């Protein structure tokens, strides 16, 4: 039986404390599997390091920097936070997680990991589930504050598409976005988008004039841009998909729009096979400090931060899927969660229906 290895999703933080050596009591990774998928979870930060689709040709859905959790911080900290020991993207991606519960047999397999964030004074409990017969992984997270002060939270599910799944000119990325904004960058950057300009997804303004369609990843182009989009406020569930029609494969996330109202597109195009595309759904539009998210207050009429009340908890839940699509399946028109299924519709009217008994 051929296995499809969804390549390592490596942590994007460049300077990271080295985790303790793995032991029998604290292994470097945990494997969770059903009859369709096999997921390897790195215990440092609880990041997803490999996914195996049990049938199909070898092709990775995520690579390069992968999916890790940016918490409690997304992007660079303030000067004072950095001086206090906080690194880029918060602590969660660097701290060894403890497995506090496992279910390794039966119709639903699961593992629950727990992280204590000493600088932020928060506890993260994260449960990953897979049900037999499904091409879906469910992720539930609970964040609890230990302090007696309300605080703004910075939380991003930092997923990055890379080679070989992300092959320039051969992949289409879509989402139910509405208004978007190009982030300002430092002088001398290689961006092609017009900085701080607003636009309607997916047509982004170019510095040289005209527009570019962000659904695709161009071949033979070098540029680095960031553009954040508001997920359609009329939707209960938002999504982001990556479709390879030539390989008849699709990968994607579905999440509650109220919990993750923003998605930041990080477009690092190198002009070769090392291109990367971040699809980072989050509580805030851009990867900036807590102070900057609060100072901004809102963008397009939506808040740019969320509150975690004193001595309280907040909970999020999302799923991701990876599966074949039929011949002729073109651009994604919608992804719906209904009747115990995730239904992926294309513009021709075809539907790929995935069983999703655990729902959202």
Task: Report on this structure.
- This protein is mainly beta.
- 3% of the residues lie in helices and 46% in strands.
- The chain has 2 helices and 29 strands.
- Strands 5, 11, 12, 14, 15, 18, 21 and 22 form an 8-stranded antiparallel β-sheet that branches. It has an 8-stranded antiparallel β-sheet with strand order 6-7-8-9-26-20-19-13, with no helix packed on it. Strands 1-4-3-2 form a 4-stranded antiparallel β-sheet, with no helix packed on it.
Judging from the principal axes of the Cα atoms, what is the shape? globular
- Count of spatially separate domains: 1
- CATH C-level class is Mainly Beta
**What is the overall number of helices?**
2
Structural class: mainly beta
Q: Helicity, in percent? A: under 10%
The CATH topology annotation reads as Beta-galactosidase, Chain A, domain 5
| CATH architectural designation | Distorted Sandwich
Q: For the CA atoms, what is the radius of gyration?
A: 19 Å
Terminus-to-terminus distance: 31 Å
Total DSSP E strands: 29
Q: How much strand content do the residues show?
A: over 45%
Low-confidence segments, given as residue ranges, are 1-21
Major β-sheet profile:
8 strands, antiparallel
Average pLDDT figure: 89
């Amino acid at each position: 039986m051929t296995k499809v290895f969804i390549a390592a999703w490596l942590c994007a933080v460049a300077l990271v404390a080295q985790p303790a050596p793995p032991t029998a009591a604290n292994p470097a990774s945990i494997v969770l599997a059903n009859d369709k998928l096999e997921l390897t979870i790195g215990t440092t930060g609880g990041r997803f390091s490999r996914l195996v689709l049990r049938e199909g040709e070898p092709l990775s859905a995520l690579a390069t920097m992968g999916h890790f959790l940016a918490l409690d911080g997304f992007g660079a900290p303030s000067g004072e936070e950095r001086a206090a020991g906080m690194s880029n993207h918060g602590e969660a991606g660097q701290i060894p997680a403890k497995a506090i519960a496992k279910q390794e047999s039966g119709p639903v397999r699961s593992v629950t990991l727990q992280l204590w964030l000493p600088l932020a004074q928060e506890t993260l409990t994260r449960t990953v589930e897979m049900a037999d017969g499904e091409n879906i992984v469910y992720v539930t997270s609970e964040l609890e504050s230990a302090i007696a002060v309300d605080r703004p939270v910075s939380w991003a599910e930092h997923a990055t598409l890379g080679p070989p799944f992300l092959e320039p000119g051969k992949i289409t990325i879509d989402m139910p976005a509405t208004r978007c904004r190009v982030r300002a960058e430092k002088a001398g950057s290689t961006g092609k988008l017009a900085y701080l300009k607003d636009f309607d997804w997916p047509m982004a303004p170019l510095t040289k004039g005209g527009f570019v369609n962000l659904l695709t990843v161009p071949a033979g182009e070098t540029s680095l841009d960031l553009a954040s989009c508001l997920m359609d406020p009329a939707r209960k569930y938002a999504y982001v998909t990556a479709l390879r029609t030539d390989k008849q494969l699709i990968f994607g996330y579905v999440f509650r729009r109220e919990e993750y109202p923003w998605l930041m597109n990080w477009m690092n195009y190198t002009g070769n096979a090392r291109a990367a595309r971040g699809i980072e759904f989050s509580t805030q539009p851009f990867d900036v400090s807590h102070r900057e998210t609060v100072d901004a207050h809102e963008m397009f009429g939506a808040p740019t931060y969320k509150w975690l009340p004193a001595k309280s908890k907040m909970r999020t839940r999302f799923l991701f899927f990876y599966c074949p699509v039929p011949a002729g399946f073109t651009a994604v028109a919608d992804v719906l969660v209904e009747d115990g299924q995730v239904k992926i519709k294309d513009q021709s009217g075809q539907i790929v229906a995935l069983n999703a008994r655990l729902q959202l």
